[in-house]
Amino acid sequence: MAHPLAGVDLGTRTVSYDERDAILYALAVGAQATDLDLVFERRLRVLPTFALTLAQWAPDVLAGRGAWDVATALHGSQRLRVRRPLPPAGELAMAARVSAVWDKGPAAIFDVEVESEYFVATWSIFAPGRGGFGGERGPSRSQPPEAGPDVETSLSTFGTQAALYRLTGDRHLIHIDPDSARAIGQPRPILHGLCTLAAAVLRLAAVLGVHPADLADLDGRFAAPVLPGQELDLALWRADTGMAFRARRGGADVLTDGFARFASTERS
Q: Is-same-fold flag (1-133; 143-268)?
């Protein structure tokens, strides 16, 4: 049985941005002052993951329609398919829909797809208490590589990262307010999952010797919160079409099912 929200049109929206927005985003996810083509308007290349901040309105629209309890729902995973590079500034027209709703028994997973001429992005939202409607369970999680990683490195976050990243659009209180963070069982405000994922892209690009703005495909599943200032262990596996990756903290997964493909193998 299909969920009544499956296939629902969430509308369209046009969002404007300029060079300052793109530069703020790059700094928030870990770009350095020496990365001039990410932080200097005269050379600017926009990180593809910046699109996810521009499209955040779509899952918020569905949440506003009561699809899930905002107090318990979790951003389970994210997908991004890049069609063409984002310009340094301009207007971005987007259309959104509920591409699928999967029945996991005690919970449901809502896939929210946002499409533009520049990208297609899909949010997967894990919604406790919304399953059991008789629908399909959906695809299974990918299996982790059996062999050891081809590359092991570290991924550093910084203490003010959540406070900075929230200025790009996601101002949920758990990322800035200590009381709100304690209410979800965290000792202090947590880093945005999309920030951690974008920071991993920067580190992957550096390890591979490619430019982060050449990202073509990205997938990642959010397994556990990250606190600003923590250092993560990043493991990479070479695949036929890109790199699989996983991030851990203290031996526990925080990012899983990671995959990235870059359009270019040469750093600009």
A: yes
Query: For the segment 8-33, what is each residue's pLDDT rounded down to a tens digit?
Result: 999 999 999 999 999 999 999 999 99
Task: Respond yes or no: is residue 172 known to be catalytic.
Answer: no
Catalytic residue among 103, 111, 175, 214: 175
Four-way CATH pick for 1-133: 3.40.50.1240, 3.10.129.10, 1.25.40.10, 3.50.50.60: 3.10.129.10
Top-level class of domain 143-268: alpha beta
pLDDT in tens, 211-231: 999 999 999 999 999 999 999
Active-site residue identified among 21, 35, 111, 170: 170
211 flagged as catalytic: no
Domain ranges of the chain: 1-133, 143-268
Asked whether 109 and 59 are in contact (CB, 8 A), the reply is no
